[in-house]
Structures are given as C-alpha cells and as structure tokens.
C-alpha cells in the first residue's frame, strides 16, 4: 500500500484564499484586520518564522506589524506593551513568538494578552474554552491538523486516535479537538510504556514529539491516517518530521509530509484566527 499524501501547501492556499475574500469584505466596510507580532531576542529560527507570518499576512490583505525587542527586555516592559496592544482597537490579534528568553515567564506573558486577541490560542481562557466546548481561539497547529482530516472527509466518530506528545500548544489541544469529534483518544508521552501497542491499534496517529523516527512502519495499522507535526533536522540538515515517511507511507492510508504538511497549515490557521478576531471585534460596526 502507498499512502495518499495530504498536501498541506495546497490546503493552506485554499484557506488563505478564503481568508483573502473575507478580508476584502471587511475592508469594504472600512475595517483593516491587523495582527501584531512580538519577537523578543535574536533566535534565528524565530526570526525566520515571524518573517513568514508577516509575509503570509500581507499577501492575504491583513496588516501585520513585527515588533522586535532586545533579549534583555524586562517582563514589566513586555507586559506593558501587551496592555497597550490590548487597548488598541486597530489591533485585532496579538502573537508573542515562542520561545521567549529564559528570564521571561512565557505563560505569565501570554496570560496578559486579551483572550479576544489571543489568535495563537495559548491563553488559559482559550484552553479552557476548547476544553468545555465554548467559543474561543483554537491553537493553530492542532486546528490545522483538524482541517487536514476534514479535507479528506474523514469521520472521526468512534475511531481510535492516538496523540503522541502532551504539550499545551499541540498535544493536549489536539486531543481535545479529536475528542470533540467523538474519537476515542489516547495521549502518549515520554513515560508511555510500549508506545507501539497503542499506535498499532490507532485509526489516526498524530505525532507531536520533536524527535525523528518516533513512528515507524511496524507501529502503524494498515490504512491509518498519520499526521506528522514534528519539525526536526536529519543528518544532512534537511527538515524532517517525527515519522519515518518512507516506511510509514507504505503502510498508512493517508500521511502528511514534512515540509509541506502541518507547517503551512499552522500559518494559514493563524490568518484565519486573526480574521475571525477582526470580524468579531467589529461586528455591527
Ligand atoms: N508544524 C508546526 O506548525 C509546528 C511544529 N512543532 C513541532 O512539533 C514538535 C512538538 O512540539 P511541542 O509540542 O511544542 O514539543 P514539546 O517538547 O513541548 O513536547 C513534546 C512531547 O513529546 C513527548 N515525548 C518526548 N519524547 C517522547 C518519546 N520518545 N515518546 C513519546 N513521547 C515523547 C514529551 O513527553 P513529556 O511530556 O513526558 O516530556 C512531550 O509531551 C516539535 O518538533 C516542534 O518543533 C511545534 C509547533 C508547531
Ligand atoms: N507564538 C508562537 N506561535 C507559533 O505558532 C509558533 C511559535 N510561537 N514558535 C515556534 C513554533 C513553530 N511553528 C511553525 C510554524 C510553521 C512552520 C512551517 O511553515 N514549516 C514549513 C517549513 C519551513 C522551513 O522551511 O523552515 C513546512 O513544514 O513546510 C514551522 C513551524 C510555529 N510556532
């Protein structure tokens, strides 16, 4: 068997086109949807990622501002700036790029973002809303994974889903979203004994670990859907996921590639969340 590939680039392009259309409608009402991105420090990967986010936004008609601050910025100064952005009606979304320098408490900083502008979906209020099924912003990476499942018309009801990884920004919200669609969800992590015994029984596997070859062909049920969130570098320095793509694609029914899978979807869902924040903030205006 050779798996069908779920093309994240193509699906992300579709979502961006939808966002562009809705952005044009807002602009026709005199509203410019706007995202503020805060980057603290000089992390090279973060510099690349934030540049991508600004370019994606601009191409879609959203206004994006990248604010860069030195690595020694104090928490008080950062919190003050976020409060200003919270108050600014021209700003609809606020994103603080992670990781933050070690002297800053990332969760505390995120809690200062107004939940109405939390387009990353990392605020505890956003996490709580997802947990209890109330409206709120969903974290972009698991949200993008759900869109990928939706794009193949996959019905999660009663299916066994295994999420590998339990971070607050990927694994845990991913599990909640799958649960909300009536999957039977198992969350595995570094203390899980015999990972393979869980994945072999899974109709859907989401790998969000950050280690190469966490999922290999012998661990996958024939025909399963495999979603690879991981971002790693192989020995040649090439980007690769958590899944042994060459092997697993011989067993799985569907698989997402890295690059060109979940990554572009994460970026597209950020645009969708920002647009939604702008629409909600300006409803009836
Ligand atoms: N494509 C995209 O858009 C994005 C990709 N990523 C990538 O996804 C990956 C995960 O990110 P993130 O959730 O932030 O990472 P974290 O490091 O926060 O979480 C990793 C999780 O994997 C678990 N884990 C570690 N080793 C194993 C193992 N051998 N077997 C099973 N579970 C294990 C950890 O368990 P424990 O809790 O016990 O430590 C932890 O829960 C990274 O590669 C990251 O770069 C992240 C965000 C967006
Ligand atoms: N506040 C915050 N929000 C985030 O969403 C956030 C963050 N901080 N910090 C870092 C992680 C990581 N992340 C990625 C998003 C897209 C790609 C992506 O588009 N990847 C491309 C490849 C890009 C390349 O070539 O390097 C792909 O998979 O095709 C990667 C990684 C978002 N993150």
Automatic annotation (TrEMBL):
PANTHER family: C-1-TETRAHYDROFOLATE SYNTHASE, CYTOPLASMIC (PTHR48099:SF5), C-1-TETRAHYDROFOLATE SYNTHASE, CYTOPLASMIC-RELATED (PTHR48099). Signal peptide: none annotated. It comes from the Bacteria. The keyword Electron transport does not apply. HAMAP family: THF_DHG_CYH (MF_01576). It catalyses: (6R)-5,10-methenyltetrahydrofolate + H2O = (6R)-10-formyltetrahydrofolate + H(+); (6R)-5,10-methylene-5,6,7,8-tetrahydrofolate + NADP(+) = (6R)-5,10-methenyltetrahydrofolate + NADPH. NADP(+) binds at residues 165-167. One of its GO terms (molecular function) is methylenetetrahydrofolate dehydrogenase (NADP+) activity. Pathway: One-carbon metabolism; tetrahydrofolate interconversion. One of its GO terms (cellular component) is cytosol. Its EC number is 1.5.1.5, 3.5.4.9. Keywords: Amino-acid biosynthesis, Histidine biosynthesis, Hydrolase, Methionine biosynthesis, Multifunctional enzyme, NADP, One-carbon metabolism, Oxidoreductase, Purine biosynthesis. Catalyzes the oxidation of 5,10-methylenetetrahydrofolate to 5,10-methenyltetrahydrofolate and then the hydrolysis of 5,10-methenyltetrahydrofolate to 10-formyltetrahydrofolate. Residues 6-120 form the Tetrahydrofolate dehydrogenase/cyclohydrolase catalytic domain. Homodimer. This is Bifunctional protein FolD. The keyword Glycosyltransferase does not apply. CDD domains: NAD_bind_m-THF_DH_Cyclohyd.
């Amino acid at each position: 068997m050779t798996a069908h590939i779920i093309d994240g680039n193509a699906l992300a392009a579709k979502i961006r086109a939808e966002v562009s259309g809705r952005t044009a409608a807002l602009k026709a009402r005199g509203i410019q949807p706007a995202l503020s991105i805060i980057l603290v420090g000089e992390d090279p990967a973060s510099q690349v990622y934030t540049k991508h986010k600004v370019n994606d936004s601009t191409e879609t008609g959203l206004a994006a501002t990248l604010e860069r601050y030195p690595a020694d910025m104090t928490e008080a100064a950062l919190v003050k700036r976020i409060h200003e952005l919270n108050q600014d009606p021209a700003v609809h979304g606020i994103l603080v790029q992670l990781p933050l320098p070690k002297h800053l408490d990332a969760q505390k900083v995120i809690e200062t973002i107004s939940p109405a502008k939390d387009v990353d979906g990392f605020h505890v209020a956003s996490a709580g809303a997802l947990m209890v099924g109330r409206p709120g912003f969903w974290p972009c990476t698991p949200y993008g994974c759900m869109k990928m499942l939706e794009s193949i018309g996959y019905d999660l009801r009663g299916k066994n889903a295994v999420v590998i990884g339990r971070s607050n920004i990927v694994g845990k919200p991913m599990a909640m979203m799958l649960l909300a669609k009536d999957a039977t969800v198992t969350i595995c992590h570094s203390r899980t004994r015999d990972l393979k015994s869980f994945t072999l029984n899974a109709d859907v596997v989401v790998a969000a670990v950050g280690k190469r070859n966490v999922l290999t062909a012998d661990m996958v049920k024939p025909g399963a859907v495999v979603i690879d969130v991981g971002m790693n570098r192989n020995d040649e320095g090439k980007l690769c996921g958590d899944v042994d793509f060459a092997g697993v694609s011989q067993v799985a029914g569907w698989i997402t590639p890295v690059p060109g899978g979940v990554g572009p979807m994460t970026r597209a869902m950020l645009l969708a969340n920002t647009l939604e924040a702008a629409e909600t903030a300006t409803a009836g205006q």
